[in-house]
């Protein structure tokens, strides 16, 4: 399984970025796809996730500013980030997750850095 994240960079406060994640080596439709982030000195946290055919889920801190979407034809997941704030600065990771307990399978991409600064 490979998850290739891209789209990070430096953006000014109030700006926008779109992250992309290309998934391969898995049955895309079986996985909940998510974006997590980890800021310096902080734990990794869920930003948003989207199951196949289900409703999206967002962290309170990004609700109304970020939008997660997936394209099953291309095995892609996206994170549109608007009205970015300095607190959004972090390494963003793509995740694919399915199952629970001993049957759980979870895969991570390499991360892409988002820096929000003037």
Largest sheet: 7 strands, mixed
Could you give the distance between the termini? 37 Å
Task: List the helices and strands in order.
Answer: EEEEEEEEEEE
Shape verdict: globular
User: Low-confidence stretches at least 5 residues in length (pLDDT < 50)?
Assistant: none
Class per helix and strand makeup: mainly beta
Number of helices: 0
Count of extended strands: 11
The percent range for strand residues is: over 45%
* Alpha carbon gyration radius: 14 Å
Query: Which range best describes the helical content: under 10%, 10-25%, 25-40%, 40-55%, 55-70% or over 70%?
Result: under 10%
Q: Indicate the mean pLDDT.
A: 96
Structure, briefly:
The protein is mainly β and 118 residues long.
Commentary on this structure:
With about 120 residues, the protein is mostly beta strands. The protein contains no helices and eleven strands. It has strands spanning about 1-5, 10, 15-25, 30-40, 45-50, 55-60, 65-70, 75-80, 90-100, 105-110, 110-115. Strands 2, 4, 5, 6, 9, 10 and 11 form a seven-stranded mixed beta sheet that branches. Strands 1-3-8-7 form a four-stranded antiparallel beta sheet, with no helix packed on it. The radius of gyration is 14 Å and the shape is globular.
């Amino acid at each position: 399984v490979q998850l290739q994240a891209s789209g990070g960079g430096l953006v000014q406060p109030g700006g926008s970025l779109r992250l992309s994640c290309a998934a391969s080596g898995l049955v895309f439709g079986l996985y909940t796809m998510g974006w997590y982030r980890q800021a310096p000195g902080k734990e990794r946290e869920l930003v948003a996730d989207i199951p196949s055919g289900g409703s999206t889920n967002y962290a309170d801190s990004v609700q109304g500013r970020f939008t997660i979407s997936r394209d099953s034809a291309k095995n892609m997941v996206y994170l549109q980030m608007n009205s970015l704030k300095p607190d959004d600065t972090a390494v963003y990771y793509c995740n694919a997750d399915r199952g629970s307990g001993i049957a759980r399978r979870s895969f991570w991409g390499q991360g892409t850095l988002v820096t929000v600064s003037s």
